[in-house]
């Protein structure tokens, strides 16, 4: 087999670096409008029996794993790490009250949060520091990120569910519902049906 020439090597490099399949025109644009079809055909032959192949799909060219080796590349899907209850509550507080300080999060939750909770949320890319509050001690504030919106399918924070939506979805704890009823003066009768306060 003859060694690849400079044009073949250049076409190969362009295709390996490409994020998506490329047309002949797109490949030529990288190489000063060189005639690349013979190089593509030669590369396709060169890779025909290898672990990766140069293939043409429609008018676009790209490298892909040889079909008979695809089973070697399958991996068990890594389960995303689940947030702890503290992480979930902290994320919700930040989302609904941003920008918010650690002390404000703790005041709303009623318990101290560990540094690890904020670290996990920072690592996921769902929150970020947003500067310091102009009060004594200048505490750091936190806000949600575009990654948070993307992960939860929200266009903006305005799309966050309201209290009625959360209640309807059954996402509020019975304790939360009982507290809400006690504050509103509504108490369930023996059958579990709420009585309206007079």
Question: Notable features of this structure?
Answer:
198 residues; alpha+beta; Arc Repressor Mutant, subunit A; 3-stranded antiparallel sheet; 10 helices; elongated; disordered C terminus
CATH class of the largest domain: Mainly Alpha
Q: Number of DSSP helices?
A: 10
Rg of Cα set: 29 Å
The CATH homologous superfamily of the largest domain: Winged helix-like DNA-binding domain superfamily/Winged helix DNA-binding domain
Q: What is the count of β-strands?
A: 8
Helix content: 40-55%
What's the CATH architecture name of the largest domain? Orthogonal Bundle
> What is the averaged pLDDT score?
80
Distance between the termini: 94 Å
* Major β-sheet strand ordering: 1-3-2
Q: Structural class, judged by helices and strands? A: alpha+beta
Q: Please give the largest β-sheet.
A: 3 strands, antiparallel
Which fold name corresponds to the CATH topology of the largest domain?
A: Arc Repressor Mutant, subunit A
Q: Which percent band covers the strand fraction?
A: 15-25%
- Described by the principal axes of the CA atoms, the overall outline is elongated
Low-confidence stretches: 187-198
Total count of domains: 2
H/E topology pattern: HEHHEEHHEHHEEHHHEE
